[in-house]
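Q: Here's a chain of 265 amino acids. Please give me its 3D structure as tokens.
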Amino acid sequence: MVTLYCMLVIYMFPAKYQRSYEVRYYETNFMLEATPVTILGYLEETATCHSQTVGNTIKRLQDLGRGWVVYRYHLQMERYPCWQERITVTTWVERFQRCFAYRNFHIHDADGNMVGRAASVWIFLDIAARKPLRIPPEIMEPYGIHPEAAVPEGFSDLVEPEELETVGEFTVGAADLDINRHANNKRYIHWLLEGVPLEVHRRAFANELEVIYKKDARYGDRIVNQCRELEDAKGARHYLHRLICPEKELVLTLARTSWQKRKDP
């Protein structure tokens, strides 16, 4: 009975998976800080390595014609780590629901202080058909479940905004593609952050980012970046973002960012 109880506890509350990173110079911005794209890269790497560790390797999924694609992120940062700073990313699966996996993250500095947290939703796909599939038990079970929400407020409704200003255009190139042959999710973040004025990047940092990925962008697609600042009585900066592919009449991504004023040196 004791052995069975211990096995149940291990399944329900498994050890969380961790990886450490040192911020490289080429991963920083003009303030020598890791960028939101860098942070999302660390999260993606940690999630992928977690899957590799439990046996759901990239090769295994490719052989099955299956794969994971990220659907939503909600990132909250107290600060961004600087060049040569070491951080630890911890991840775990909060729950599975049909074709969705709810994966969470904590980010700590070398002193154990939490500098960021994130919630994410991933979709299990039939890659060839681009069709969501119910996640089978043999894929779910190796991860275990740890029912803790890193971002307690979860995900907000991101509706399509009106009267957005076009702030840039991009064309999807070979360097933008991921293993599934569509634009990598981090490239979307890079493009939409370009819509925020440089002066805002100088004086503030993106302390909150929420994004929903609606459609894929493919090689050669023209991407139009649209953005609008929201009024805030307290003087904080908030933006609504949208990436569209006009030729295909597609809305690719909706996002919301909040910007916290930097402390005076």
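Q: Can you summarize the key feature?
A: The chain is about 20% helix and 40% strand.
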